[in-house]
Amino acid sequence: MLALWQGYIRNKDLVDQFVITRQQAYQDIRAYQERYPERLNKMASGPYQFSAQYIYQAPKHSLEHYLQWLSTGQFYAPQPALNSVLGEQCSVPQRYVSPQVIAVLTDAIRQQKRVELGYVSLSNPEWQGRIFHPHSFIKTGLRWHMRGYCEKSQDYRDLVLSRCRGEAELLDASEHTKDDDQVWNTQVDLIFAPDPRLNEAQREVIVHDYQMDNGQLHITTRAALVDYLLKEMQVKTQYLEGIPEAQQLILLNPRDVKPWLFDR
Considering 116, 123, 215, 224, which has the largest number of Cβ atoms within 10 A of its Cβ? Predict the structure, then answer.
């Protein structure tokens, strides 16, 4: 996982993760090399990295595990045998993200540097170069974003990782850090309640679902994540669904969150 998404793997990574000796880590990597001699190469600077050919063949399903590992420091170990006994999981297609781009972005975050990369969007489907100052990964429902300062927009923005194009290049030091991202550092309290169009028994179902206090659910989140959270909660702020069973929840303080919505 680290060799793919981080761009390299060190003895130290194994020592820190599995609490083993440096000699044991070295032996483990050597054993992997002997088993798969065409995959892992030793870099001149010391760490090991996958061959360019293998990166394109390697399974890409572990990106979410890698990004979770970045924030928790622990590997996520699924148990497919147990899952198959207890039930099924609704799986959605994973959007393709370049391992090389992820490796450069994570390096940029650690070193607080700028990156140059290509980017497309639905509003601008033509490939455009961007100079970006990344500071955080964001998981929003079905896809991952990168939060940081965009020199093209002259402001802090979220880039969809699957819409990065070409190879990313690490540049010089960034002058726009996480501490300067006002929207990221602002905390917003969202107050939800059952849709009042529901009858009393239906409202009680919703109250129990979310373990509400006095019929309200309070969630505090970053201002930069407000719009994503509302979409995940399936709460509309500009209009109500035609039937309350579809809406289920309403936002009691829309004025407090309006400044942070993408479509105001």
Answer: 224
